[in-house]
Amino acid sequence: MMIPAVLQPREPDAATLARAATLIAEVEAGLDNGESAVMALRELRSLTEQSELAAENYYEISGAMSYEDAATLAFCPQPEVIADLTFQQFRWICEKMQATLCSGQFEFWFQLFRLNARNSRAGDLFFNPPEAWVSRLIEAGEIPADTKPNSFSPSAQQLAEEAWKSDAILL
């Protein structure tokens, strides 16, 4: 089950990723020193095909992760709402998000998940599952009775089902 090709992260080779990581470090160093890193930023934009990102965007993402993970994320498109997304596609996004938890692509998949979830608290479902949800799953026999919200890690199916439910208040 796939999503539109324009939303698929690029998978560059190791040398290209290494070059992007080096360029991100140069952009960050330039900002730290109050200098312009125009040449490094220009090459980075060309390499990643992310012409809309400013130096501050790279600085922001590299500040929260390694340069290698920031480079991996730099090859991801900007997450967006997917028109006519099916539940199966949404479940696939949940699977990708869980599979990339320890990689630079996680931020992309997490944002794509949040943007396309119908539940406004979708991010909490993944990182801080609500006690009421965990209790419902226990009552349904889907998870062990001694499961606590802080130790619960939902399956992609459980996450997709709960995040797909709208919590909008209809007036």
Please outline what is shown here:
The protein is mainly alpha-helical and 171 residues long. It is built from nine helices and no strands.
Protein architecture, described:
The protein is an all-alpha fold and 171 residues long. 29% of the residues are buried. It has helices spanning 14-32, 38-48, 55-63, 67-74, 87-99, 106-116, 122-127, 131-139, 156-164. The two termini are 35 Å apart. The radius of gyration is 19 Å and the shape is elongated.
Features:
171 residues, mainly alpha, elongated
**Largest sheet, strands/sense/barrel:** none
Question: Approximately how much helix is present in the residues?
Answer: 55-70%
Cα-atom radius of gyration: 19 Å
Total beta strand runs: 0
Shape: elongated
Approximate strand percentage: under 5%
Oligomer: single chain
Distance between the termini: 35 Å
Order of helices and strands: HHHHHHHHH
| Tally of individual helices | 9
Class by alpha and beta content: mainly alpha
Q: Can you give the mean pLDDT? A: 87
Low-confidence spans: pLDDT under 50, at least 5 residues? none
Task: Outline the fold blueprint.
Elements: H1 14-32, H2 38-48, H3 55-63, H4 67-74, H5 87-99, H6 106-116, H7 122-127, H8 131-139, H9 156-164
Helix pairs in contact: 1-2, 1-3, 1-4, 5-6, 5-9
